[in-house]
Specification:
Shape: globular
Number of helices: 18
Order of helices and strands: HHHHHHHHHHHHEHEEHHEEEEHHH
Mean pLDDT: 82
Structural class: alpha/beta
Helix content: 40-55%
Radius of gyration: 42 Å
Oligomer: single chain
Number of strands: 7
Largest sheet: 5 strands, mixed
Length: 459
């Protein structure tokens, strides 16, 4: 007990004895009966039942002093508590805070996707999600929902949404498997395995749903009208182009090295896409090494075989100067002129005024696919320097094309467009087997050019 309190209590006892000498607080009074077990002169009940005011005064003062002593003790204890120490200036060097958990870890991803995400407004939430995984949260959940049954069937030890997030992070930032593994505390082999599984599912299970040739009349009309508003040319249903995708660390036989070396000097595989007016791909092909030309790649594609065999028949036919014109695609001079593929008259503007006007409008329509390819490489930066094995390169590229379409359909913000070098190369030659398509295409192209020149000149 506090020494100050004991001294005050002793003085109070002397005061009591001097005020009421007939009653002692420390020994029973001579006139009192023997103390019982239930009551004693020093108990609170005896003090309160005393006829003298002195015991009551003592009891009141003692209670007050006890309360003050107790309060003083508590205050001193609070001042020595960890909370009070936080408020005092700490002159000793504080230990460095523990490193925060990376957003690549499962726990951090779970906290972001379950707790933190609902405390954000939608624009902030989606911006954060795009910075991490290349697309907004609603599009992310769509991908997860589509792939979850297939991932669950694979008996993967990780949650489906975390596996998809890991792969999207790799595709959108271009990280290697080792980088993702080190940040998520996983084995690089497991990261590669998950990447291969998710990209394969995107390229096979989701491709038929999100990359479709516009054969329905409603979509065909919407696409041709969109291109006509852009170019004033009727019945364009798509624009075709090819682009080399750089592949890092390719180990090839000497006989194959030159075939994968593209015209820009690096090892690559060739990507061919056809896009509509909204920059949505409706055909994707990755079948040629980077050293192949666009025309060769096109002729090896399934799309070429379906168009030349009549497997694809677009029923939206219009008449232009006596020529029945079915929907056609447009490309640059690196592709052959065919009845279903219109190309420029001249790569250097050496044609007639009508032909030059046609070329300008056709290249304007072709710019859609150039922009779509640029968006693809900007959103999915792994395509700027592909760091997967050659065997998995095609499915990774196609997977990114599927994700690109998901972003375009959802009207995701378009980032700054990646720019490939300007197209170079000689005009494609026509094969003997293509002569019939070429002659019809030649007359059709001239009819379109004359009709365009007449319509625009009369305005």
């Amino acid at each position: 007990m506090d020494e100050t309190f004991l001294l005050m209590l002793s003085n109070l006892l002397h005061l009591h004895n001097s005020l009421d000498p007939t009653t002692s607080l420390l020994s029973p009074a001579s006139s009192s009966p023997p103390p019982s077990s239930s009551s004693s002169p020093s108990s609170p009940s005896s003090l309160l039942s005393s006829s003298s005011p002195a015991p009551l005064l003592f009891f009141t003062l003692a209670s007050l002093l006890s309360f003050l002593a107790t309060s003083s003790s508590k205050k001193g204890h609070q001042n020595s508590s960890p909370l009070s120490k936080k408020r005092e200036p700490n002159l000793s060097p504080s230990p460095s805070p523990p490193p925060s958990s990376s957003h690549f870890s499962l726990s951090a991803f779970r906290a972001l996707s379950t707790d933190h995400i609902w405390s954000l407004d939608a624009p902030t939430r989606d911006a954060q999600w795009r910075s991490l995984y290349g697309l907004s949260y609603p599009v992310f959940t769509t991908v997860v929902d589509k792939l979850k049954p297939f991932i669950a069937a694979s008996n993967l030890s990780l949650p489906s949404d975390y596996a998809v997030a890991m792969v999207l992070s790799r595709l959108s930032h271009g990280y290697s498997a080792k980088t993702i593994a080190s940040r998520s505390s996983l084995d690089p082999y497991l990261v590669s395995k998950i990447t291969n599984m998710v990209t394969r599912l995107l390229a096979t299970k989701l491709y038929p749903e999100f990359i479709k040739i516009p054969v329905s009349r409603r979509r065909l009309i919407e696409t041709t009208q969109g291109f006509e508003e852009l170019t004033s040319l009727p019945n364009i249903c798509g624009a075709i182009d090819g682009s080399p995708i750089k592949v890092r660390g390719m180990k090839l036989d000497r006989n194959l090295m030159n075939s994968f070396k593209c015209k820009y000097g690096y090892d690559s595989v060739l990507l061919q896409v056809v896009a509509d007016h909204r920059k949505i791909f409706w055909d994707v092909c990755v079948k040629a090494p980077g050293g192949a030309d666009d025309a060769t790649h096109f002729r090896d594609s399934l799309l070429y075989n379906r168009l030349t065999s009549g497997d694809i028949v677009w029923d939206k036919v219009i008449n232009v100067r006596g020529h029945p014109v079915r929907p056609f695609i447009v490309g640059d001079w690196c592709y052959p002129l065919l009845s279903f593929l219109m190309t420029p008259f001249s790569p250097d503007g050496a044609g007639t005024p009508a032909q030059n006007l046609f070329d300008g409008m056709l290249m304007k329509g072709r710019s859609v696919v150039v922009e779509a390819m640029g968006l693809l490489k900007t959103r999915w930066k792994i395509l700027q320097d592909l760091n997967v094995g050659l065997n998995h390169a095609p499915q990774t590229i196609v997977a990114c094309c599927v994700l690109h379409n998901l972003c375009q359909i959802a009207r995701e913000p378009e980032p700054e467009i990646w720019k490939d070098p300007d197209e170079t190369g000689a005009p494609a030659r026509v094969l003997e087997s293509e002569k019939q398509f070429y002659y019809f295409g030649e007359s059709l192209r001239q009819a379109l050019a004359d009709d365009l020149h007449q319509r625009l000149s009369s305005r």
